[in-house]
Amino acid sequence: MANTNQSAREYVNNVFETVKRRNPHENEFHQAVEEIFESLVPVFEQNPTYIEHNILERISEPERMVTFRVPWLDDQGKTQVNRGFRVQFNSAIGPYKGGIRFHPSVNASIIKFLGFEQIFKNSLTGQPIGGGKGGADFDPKGKSDNEIMRFCQSFMTELYKHIGPDTDVPAGDIGVGAREVGYMFGQYKRLRGAYEAGVLTGKAPDFGGSLARKEATGYGTVYFVQEMLKDNNDSFSGKTVVVSGSGNVSVYAMEKATELGAKVVACSDSNGYIYDENGINLATVKRLKEEENKRIKEYLEFHPEAKYFDECNGIWSIPCDIALPCATQNEINEEDAKKLIANGVKAVGEGANMPSTLKAIDLFIENNILFAPAKAANAGGVAVSALEMAQNSARLSWKFEEVDAKLKEIMQDIYKHSIEAAEEFGHPGNLVIGANIAGFKKVADAMIWQGVI
């Protein structure tokens, strides 16, 4: 048991130093842990029981971390080797749940930061799911369908030993869509000799997937920001919006924001960004990115009045009322935040995982910018994944409108619980602190109830 005579601040600082010592050079993981730990000081001041049970040290250490070799044959018959990961971080409230990411940047730090965030995000959804994450440093760009299939099959040949419908339920993430999930599910089925539909989510709707799953993270982000604006007597109507990225999260955040009356003027990919003062034509972006797999600069071929700029981070210099970072971690730094604030941004909603640095977040809060943190705002994706699990268990398929209505209700509840927790613990309006506390308390209470595990 921890020393309950130490102050809450001392306890948090000591555990954070332990985390850094045990996980050297894992900067992304340190960043995620620091942001959450800082928010929890008021909780430990009011509830020393959490210190007594040493919840922080337990919750920041994964229950299990698996690293494995993924050999696969390219189209020239040459053996390639990548590294695969799965972190099973916390199962206090349900089976591990979290996506699989295929991207060259994937390493232990990235996977652990994502898995740690997933604990609290999943808790916020109100669904019975624990926190996990996985991936590989494989780059699907430029690979043939057969190469991607062979990689996915090799990846699952190891991963299947560690997952199951009641143990660990992966989903998609960056670089992993319905195609990749299908290849992995096929290999899992072959190895297990059973059709366990609930072992993976993000499946194609015709094969056990949920309608509205593709739209869920983007829609959910906008639903959350909508609640935040409504609480401040405002709305998306008539607002100028900038959205980074052009994948699923970005596209459907743009779609929902436009439906609510906003004008989206910019989006990006890893090469650069486009600015269309007349409003982004979403049909063109969908065709380029979802059907033709082309770069965003090709938008100008169809809309020559738009402008294209190299280096995607410049997108945050565009004046806007609402910024929705939906691309990747740490895409908004301190200087980007200063530009957004100087240009009159009113609200920031994080559609990606940890897209703002800690200094950027501090600036937004200090300047009274409405700020929707990722673990709350982008929880719609995993929420609908949990709804997919429920449909699989019941052997049912719900209509799009039914799933979308449940998604909106979940996002409204996340906002309500986050804003109430912020108020209760002395930081009214601070959704970073509120979301962290609301997500933490449910998991911490479950861990105490289950004993020392």
Description of the molecule:
It contains 17 helices and twelve strands. The protein is α/β, with parallel strands linked by helices and 453 residues long. It folds into three domains: 1-61 and 430-453, Glutamate Dehydrogenase, chain A, domain 3 (Glutamate Dehydrogenase, Chain A, domain 3), CATH 1.10.285; 64-195, Leucine Dehydrogenase, chain A, domain 1 (Rossmann fold, 3-Layer(aba) Sandwich), CATH 3.40.50.10860; 214-368, 3-Layer(aba) Sandwich (Rossmann fold), CATH 3.40.50. The strands form two sheets. Strands 9-8-7-6-10-11-12 form a seven-stranded mixed sheet, sandwiched between helices. A five-stranded mixed sheet has the order 1-2-4-3-5. It is globular, with a radius of gyration of 21 Å. 53% of the residues are buried.
CATH class of the largest domain: Alpha Beta
Named CATH architecture of the largest domain: 3-Layer(aba) Sandwich
**Low-pLDDT ranges:** none
H-E string: HHHHEEEHEHEHHEHEEHHEEHEHEHHHH
Q: Compute the CA-based radius of gyration.
A: 21 Å
Strands of the widest sheet, in order across it, are 9-8-7-6-10-11-12
**Oligomeric organization of the protein chains:** single chain
Please name the fourth-level CATH homologous superfamily of the largest domain: NAD(P)-binding Rossmann-like Domain
Q: How much of the residues is beta strand, in percent?
A: 5-15%
**SS elements, strand count:** 12
Q: How can the largest sheet be summarized?
A: 7 strands, mixed
CATH fold-level name of the largest domain: Rossmann fold
Helix content: 40-55%
Tell me the distance between the termini: 13 Å
Binding site for NAD(+): 217, 248
Protein name: Glutamate dehydrogenase
Active site: 133 (proton donor)
Organism: Gracilibacillus halotolerans
